[in-house]
């Protein structure tokens, strides 16, 4: 204790000289005094031996008590077989790595995005050219984002995905669950491709096991059902435009979505044609339909009550076309198993003997009738505006068969006119088996 006090007093009185001074303090601790011409600064050094080598270590302390404490810690390291010099370097490196890790964590935290943010980026990037973008937005806003929207993308797990699917299944919306799972998979793969997340949380989920296997519908309306449909339609409480849409869909074999977006400028009453532009066509190919007298009559009926100069099927305020699903929903609503309150007359008005039918079944029925009328499959495919699956045929067989298509639609229209508008008691039915 007395020695330390004496050394402490001596330390306070240390003065620089013309030469460097190295003053021992005990325990291998030395006080170094720089010469006058180097500023006369005072520092502390620790001398030790490690693995047979003599080593010096400059201490960080700026006063004698701190230097002694630092010396004692290094002495303990030596007893434990640790090289103080190496440990000092490692400590500096560990501090750097910790700083880098903290900075990386801060950067990652700032860059975290929620599922809603991801959906917006996916929508504005990958969904721009999809024709069903409005429907996808509706599905996500209704069923996905209320559950996942606030979660950070990297925190989403399989359990969150199955929660969305299970809620849909509880509503008996199994097919919607299947479609939404496939869409969520596309969105999370988009995130993986852009390094937003490392793993897709939907990757190990089976669409079939979690939802349902895809079903291929083959429902067609028989000619008996078509005649029944004509008799029952007046009791369906449809607007005239919806009734016309049913007959146009059947007689032209168009898709309901294409019909919903139709504009008056697309119909040429003199040439008896309706052109579906690329922007409305499912396969992105413009399609000209040669209207039969039966189909043309439906467009003329629509023209007598036209509400805008643009849209054939306008929405409520005439600002755009009617929703793609509107016509299908109206058809489905007239085939309910239970009578709905306030709709006792029309909720079962379109029930047919072959079972439930959809707007898309009208397209399939028209194609089937064409086949029964002897139209060649190649011409029917052209009328349906299908893309040829065979690559060689698609490249080399580019004939449009316009005259053949016009004749096919005429035959279909004549047959429908016979079934719908005339006394069919003596008509020989061609297609009378409900699909």
From TrEMBL:
UniProt keyword list: DNA integration, DNA recombination, DNA-binding
Database matches in InterPro entries: DNA_brk_join_enz, Integrase-like_cat_sf, Integrase_catalytic, Integrase_DNA-bd_sf, Integrase_DNA_bind_dom, Integrase_recombinase_N, Phage_int_M, Phage_Integrase
UniProt xrefs under Gene3D superfamilies: 1.10.150.130, Integrase, DNA-binding domain (3.30.160.390), Intergrase catalytic core (1.10.443.10)
PROSITE patterns: TYR_RECOMBINASE
GO molecular function: DNA binding
Domain Tyr recombinase as annotated: residue spans: 216-410
Pfam families listed in its UniProt record: Arm-DNA-bind_3, Phage_int_M, Phage_integrase
UniProt GO BP: DNA integration; DNA recombination
UniProt xrefs under CDD domains: INT_P4_C
Family membership: Belongs to the 'phage' integrase family.
Designated name of the protein: Integrase
Gene source species: Methylocucumis oryzae
């Amino acid at each position: 204790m007395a020695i330390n006090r004496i050394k402490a007093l001596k330390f306070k009185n240390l003065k620089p000289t013309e030469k460097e001074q190295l003053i021992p303090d005990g325990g291998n601790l030395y006080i170094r005094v720089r010469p006058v011409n180097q500023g006369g600064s005072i520092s502390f050094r620790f001398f030790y031996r490690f693995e047979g080598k003599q080593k010096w270590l400059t201490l960080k302390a700026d006063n004698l008590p701190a230097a002694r404490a630092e010396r004692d810690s290094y002495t303990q390291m030596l007893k434990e077989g640790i090289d103080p010099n190496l440990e000092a370097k490692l400590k500096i490196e560990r501090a750097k790595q910790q700083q880098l890790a903290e900075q990386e964590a801060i950067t990652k935290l700032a860059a975290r995005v929620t599922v809603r943010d991801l959906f917006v980026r996916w929508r504005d990037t990958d969904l721009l050219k999809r024709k069903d973008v409005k429907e996808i937005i509706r599905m996500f806003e209704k069923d996905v984002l209320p559950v996942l929207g606030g979660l950070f993308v990297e925190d989403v797990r399989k359990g969150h995905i199955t929660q969305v699917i299970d809620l849909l299944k509880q509503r008996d919306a199994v097919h919607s669950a299947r479609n939404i799972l496939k869409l969520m998979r596309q969105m999370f793969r988009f995130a993986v491709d852009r390094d937003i997340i490392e793993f897709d949380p939907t990757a190990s989920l089976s669409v079939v096991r979690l939802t349902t296997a895809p079903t291929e519908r083959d429902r067609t309306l028989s000619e008996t059902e078509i005649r029944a449909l004509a008799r029952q339609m007046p009791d369906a409480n449809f607007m005239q435009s919806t009734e016309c849409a049913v007959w146009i869909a059947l007689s032209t074999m168009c898709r309901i979505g294409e019909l919903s977006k139709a504009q008056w400028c697309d119909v040429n009453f003199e040439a008896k044609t309706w052109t579906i532009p690329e922007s409305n066509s499912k396969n992105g190919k413009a399609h000209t339909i040669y209207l039969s007298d039966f189909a043309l009559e439906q467009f003329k009926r629509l023209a007598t009550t036209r509400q805008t100069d643009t849209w054939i099927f306008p929405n409520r305020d005439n600002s755009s076309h009617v929703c793609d699903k509107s016509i299908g929903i109206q058809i489905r609503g007239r085939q309910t198993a239970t009578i709905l309150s306030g709709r006792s007359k029309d909720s079962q008005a379109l029930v047919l003997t072959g079972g439930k039918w959809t707007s898309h079944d009208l397209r399939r029925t028209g194609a089937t009738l064409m086949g029964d009328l002897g139209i060649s499959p190649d011409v029917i495919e052209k009328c349906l505006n299908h893309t040829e699956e065979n690559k060689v045929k698609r490249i080399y067989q580019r004939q449009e068969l316009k005259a053949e298509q016009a004749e096919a639609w005429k035959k279909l229209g004549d047959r429908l006119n016979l079934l719908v508008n005339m006394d069919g008691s003596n008509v020989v039915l061609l297609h009378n088996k409900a699909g």
